[in-house]
Description:
Blueprint: E1 7-10, H1 12-16, H2 26-39, E2 43-48, H3 61-68, E3 75-79, H4 83-92, E4 96-102, H5 105-111, H6 116-132, E5 138-144, H7 157-170, E6 174-178, H8 186-200, E7 207-209, H9 217-226, E8 231-234, H10 254-263, H11 272-285, H12 294-298
Parallel strand pairs: 1-2, 1-8, 2-3, 3-4, 4-5, 5-6, 6-7, 7-8
Helix pairs in contact: 2-3, 2-11, 4-6, 6-7, 7-8, 8-9
Amino acid sequence: xxxxxxxxxxxxxxxxxxxxxxxxxxxxxxxxxxxxxxxxxxxxxxxxxxxxxxxxxxxxxxxxxxxxxxxxxxxxxxxxxxxxxxxxxxxxxxxxxxxxxxxxxxxxxxxxxxxxxxxxxxxxxxxxxxxxxxxxxxxxxxxxxxxxxxxxxxxxxxxxxxxxxxxxxxxxxxxxxxxxxxxxxxxxxxxxxxxxxxxxxxxxxxxxxxxxxxxxxxxxxxxxxxxxxxxxxxxxxxxxxxxxxxxxxxxxxxxxxxxxxxxxxxxxxxxxxxxxxxxxxxxxxxxxxxxxxxxxxxxxxxxxxxxxxxxxxxxx
Length: 316
């Protein structure tokens, strides 16, 4: 990765906003994304191409993608629930598409209303669409509930292996691992990363999407680092969760993650002061919505020395 050690992928504009009742105005989303880019964030999941009646918070995703694409060097990512959403994302020019496949079939039916076989069929079609697209977007499939499900409990290893192999056969570029329900523990992170890599190949697995539901989010990041993971999803202010997984609260906090990585000497390319300032756009646009973060509350400790030299981008 150019000039950085770890990629922090900001998912607040999608995963964060889909889980709050209020609808953030489009203009406020654009200002928030501008501020994130100015702080040095290099990848943002800006929305999801889902029917507006299901997630009115993300009804403006097409317009948000168009705005985000005006930022050179920013990877514009979107979630797509099906082939129709993928077609819309490709037409909009998104750089990265993520299709969720819940290894818990019960959760898949609740979240996407699709069986495993139906999602795999969609993955094959989307992979072919991406390959044929002039812009050739990157196609990731995220194994949701891979660390456990509030509806099914633990998922058999054989199910995870079978689905991982099927996804690679379908032509996806990358398999992400998602702790949708906040069940992950550090030992499970290492075990499942190794298990999926054993099927999909080492280079196909380099991203984790972690929640802090039970307070183990950053401990699980440390486990991911030890396993060679180089991309971590996080959400400004810890917003987010899954509407179809009871109790699956908050993503790990972007600001806390960046502080930890930088304090450890791992370059993220993100200026922490500017990142903290970007929270103000979120807070102003969603008055009364709880936001989280130890660094925002306590401040950085005396003597803190980031690994990243400040490289704040100009916007406008």
